Amino acid sequence: GAGVSQSPRYKVAKRGQDVALRCDPISGHVSLFWYQQALGQGPEFLTYFQNEAQLDKSGLPSDRFFAERPEGSVSTLKIQRTQQEDSAVYLCASSSEGRRDMNTEAFFGQGTRLTVV
Amino acid sequence: DAKTTQPTSMDCAEGRAANLPCNHSTISGNEYVYWYRQIHSQGPQYIIHGLKNNETNEMASLIITEDRKSSTLILPHATLRDTAVYYCIVRGGARFGNEKLTFGTGTRLTIIP
User: Fold this and answer.
1) Rounded distance between C-alpha atoms, residue A9 and residue A74, angstroms
2) Rounded to an integer, what distance in angstroms lies between the CA atom of residue B10 and that of residue B106?
3) Residue B46: closest CA among chain A residues belongs to which residue?
4) Percentage above 90 pLDDT, chain A
5) Which chain B residue lies closest to A111 (C-alpha atoms)?
6) Nearest CB to B87 within list A42, A56, A98
7) How confident is the model at residue B88 (pLDDT cuts 50, 70, 90)?
8) How buried is residue A27: exposed, middle or buried, by Cβ count under 10 Å (0-12/13-18/19+)?
9) Does the N-terminal or the C-terminal CB of chain A have fewer CB atoms within 10 Å?
10) Testing the interface with A: which of B34, B100, B102, B103 to mutate, by most A Cβ within 10 A?
């Protein structure tokens, strides 16, 4: 399909392990977002890219979290030395809206469920 | 960011109109009202957005009060598949350097057969 694709869908990591989560946005979408959703809570913003530029990383909870989008399309969220509190669903969203565009909608992927044991 | 207030939960009978309220009394002039929903184990799904005029699409209608301090999402003929958590969000948009969606706790809507 032409939607936002995330992989893997499920990831179990041992505490202290590094993980990498992948997001394939809708082709041509300039904006890309990462969110973290704990069980029973609404999604919490992590970081935002416009093309390859990371314009907002204010939501990243610690320096163990790192995101990149080197060619302005696929993005990777990396978590180093995972801890149990990192267990959550990680959602990626993309949008065609750039800073000169009128408001439009963001499309979300199915998410990656990370469980740290 | 302007905050929104929504009821924690609501029930609606199948086939009836579901009316979901949202208060956003501190909304600023350039902020739009967005509605998303999240069905269990899926990513949020866009429903509709508007600035000050009422909006309608194939999924729902959005009614925004004249003072823009509140709005109502209307699902005209609710089905069991509309059971989900519904989020009301205010957002200025990338033009104003306000790109992100700030989700609250939403309204858990249950459609009753």
Assistant:
1) 16
2) 11
3) A105
4) 89
5) B43
6) A42
7) very high
8) exposed
9) N
10) B100
